[in-house]
Structures are given as structure tokens and as C-alpha cells.
């Protein structure tokens, strides 16, 4: 499997998603680690098995084993953090924002790859999971780390396209059953 095989699975009505996948694979604003780590982390966050398999196969060719593990860790930890921090941000009772999270999240401090890359992947996953508090936090870190708004946008474009591919394939599977 590959991103090309993923493109071929998408129906004709999702031609825009197919074309966006192609252009994002060729994105030059991000280095390969940033780009393929974003693809992998967001595929995992999108939760579609076909998308995960296709993107993981290609990402594993482009990333070091440490980067593969870190991209998986970004999807995992943000799956937890996005729920917790979205809750504390959205609930009317503001006391929750002052309480310590009491959740283990050591991987953020020591991800095993460049911190800025891990934070970029965390930001992209947060875009899928809809946590504004996490988006702001990770955006501040990557921007302080030297990434431009265009680079951040490229990562979020990857996230949105990967998520759209997953949603399309999920919808097609539901219609077929």
C-alpha cells in the first residue's frame, strides 16, 4: 500500500481529495520528516484502517524508526490531551483550567525526535480533534522554534486532506454495508 494506492481507492466524487493528496506528497515547505510524520500522525488520528495502512507503508520508507514511533506517540498523546483540554476550555466552569491535569504526558518533553517536528505533528492532530487550546499551545511552540505560518498551514492542509480521505472511505464502507 502507498499514498498512491490510497488515492486510487477514493471515488470519483472525491477527485479534489485525490489531487490534494498528490500535491501534498510533493509539498516542499516541510522537510521529509515533518511531512511524512504529519501524514502518519494524522492518519492515525483519522482512524480509518485503509488510510493508516497506506500512509504508514509510505511513511516507514521515508522516516527513521524513531520518527515513526514519535509520530505514533503524537497521535496517541493528543488523542488524550485534546479531549481533556477541549473540555477544560469549553466548559463554563473556569476552575477546571486552574486544576493540574494529573495526566502523564512525558513523551511531549522527550519525543525522541526534533521537538519542533513532534509539536508540528501534535498541532496537526489537534486540528483534526478540534482542540483550540492545544492548537494555540502547539502553534506557539513551533513558531518560536522557527517554523513559518506557511509551514504550519502545510501541515494542517495535510491533516485536513488525510481526514477527508478517511471520512470518504468510512462513508463509502457504510453505504456498501
UniProtKB/TrEMBL annotation:
Domain Carboxymuconolactone decarboxylase-like: start-end pairs:
96-174
Reaction catalysed by this enzyme? N(6)-[(R)-dihydrolipoyl]-L-lysyl-[lipoyl-carrier protein] + a hydroperoxide = N(6)-[(R)-lipoyl]-L-lysyl-[lipoyl-carrier protein] + an alcohol + H2O
Record-linked Gene3D superfamilies: AhpD-like
- List its EC numbers: 1.11.1.28
Which cysteines link up through disulfide bonds? Answer: 131-134
- In its keyword annotation, does this UniProt entry include Disulfide bond? yes
Instruction: List GO molecular-function terms, semicolon-separated.
Output: disulfide oxidoreductase activity; hydroperoxide reductase activity; peroxiredoxin activity
Q: Which InterPro entries match?
A: AhpD (IPR004674), AhpD-like (IPR029032), AhpD_core (IPR004675), CMD-like (IPR003779)
Q: Which UniProt keywords apply?
A: Antioxidant, Disulfide bond, Oxidoreductase, Peroxidase, Redox-active center
In this protein, the active site sits at 131 (proton donor), 134 (cysteine sulfenic acid (-soh) intermediate)
Q: Does the keyword 4Fe-4S apply?
A: no
Q: Which GO terms describe its biological process?
A: cell redox homeostasis; response to oxidative stress
| Family listed | Belongs to the AhpD family.
Q: What does it do?
A: Antioxidant protein with alkyl hydroperoxidase activity. Required for the reduction of the AhpC active site cysteine residues and for the regeneration of the AhpC enzyme activity.
Q: What is this protein called?
A: Alkyl hydroperoxide reductase AhpD
